[in-house]
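F.,

This is the one I mentioned.
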């Protein structure tokens, strides 16, 4: 059986003091939580948060990583540097990276393979724009992003890959995909994994939903057969909203 995995993407928010306060509160409030948890703060907050979540049931994630190990790459942060801080997971291919910062599937695939090679877990984000959904292309877009994102990834490494389906039109907009619409895309992506890696891998892979997940809609989303957790943005910034999502029942 797949376990539920609830991740908080803090995006470009919080100072070290604010991050420490939130991380400490989450450690306390989620210590009896039954699911798998992760927080992904900004690079500058990782060391602070690492010291707080170390040895707890909350994993430490980064929101991005460079495609190269080291070298002349001004402004980039390497997986080696992230690992050195205690990072266990990297979020790659987030729609803000794809659409605001121009990351394409080839670059995301390069980053993903490097992160896997260094033993990290990867959350690979996929999802369609509103115009792509309206044109009936949601499935095709998610399929392309999944196939290209995973190109060259060995079956043995797939256990460290999580997919996050995040329809771009639902991110930070307050609009959530209906549980039925989200589940349909999750099922489709699971089918894509089945075509690439076989039915057993398809049955095992964790597929999170992301896009305006809130305490009010978390349980209905998670009740769906193919939705295995959430990648939470805005609601991850406060315990009052993240903890009820993390402890949905
Ligand atoms: P949101 O963001 O929950 O604020 O919509 C989700 C995400 O971008 O991961």
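My design for it:
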């Amino acid at each position: 059986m797949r376990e539920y995995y609830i991740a908080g993407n803090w995006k470009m928010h919080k100072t070290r003091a604010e991050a420490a306060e939130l991380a400490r509160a989450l450690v306390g409030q989620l210590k009896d939580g039954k699911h798998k948890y992760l927080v992904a703060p900004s690079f500058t907050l990782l060391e602070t948060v690492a010291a707080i979540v170390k040895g707890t049931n909350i994993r430490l994630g980064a929101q991005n990583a460079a495609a190269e190990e080291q070298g002349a790459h001004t402004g980039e942060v390497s997986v080696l540097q992230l690992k050195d801080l205690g990072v266990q997971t990297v979020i790659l291919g987030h729609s803000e990276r794809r659409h605001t910062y121009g990351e394409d599937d080839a670059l995301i695939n390069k980053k993903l393979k490097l992160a896997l090679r260094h033993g990290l877990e990867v959350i690979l984000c996929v999802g369609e724009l509103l115009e792509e959904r309206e044109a009936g292309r949601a499935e095709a877009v998610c399929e392309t992003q999944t196939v290209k994102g995973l190109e060259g990834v060995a079956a043995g490494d797939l256990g460290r890959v999580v997919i996050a389906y995040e329809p771009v039109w639902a991110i930070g907009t307050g609009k959530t995909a209906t549980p039925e619409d989200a589940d349909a895309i999750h099922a489709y992506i699971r089918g894509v994994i089945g075509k690439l890696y076989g039915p057993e891998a398809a049955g095992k892979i964790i597929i999170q939903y992301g896009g305006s997940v809130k305490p009010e809609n978390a349980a209905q989303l998670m009740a769906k057969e193919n939705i295995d957790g959430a990648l939470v943005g805005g609601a991850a910034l406060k315990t009052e909203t993240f903890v009820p999502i993390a402890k949905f029942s």
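Strands lie at 5-9, 36-40, 58-62, 89-92, 121-126, 161-165, 207-210, 229-232.

Talk soon.
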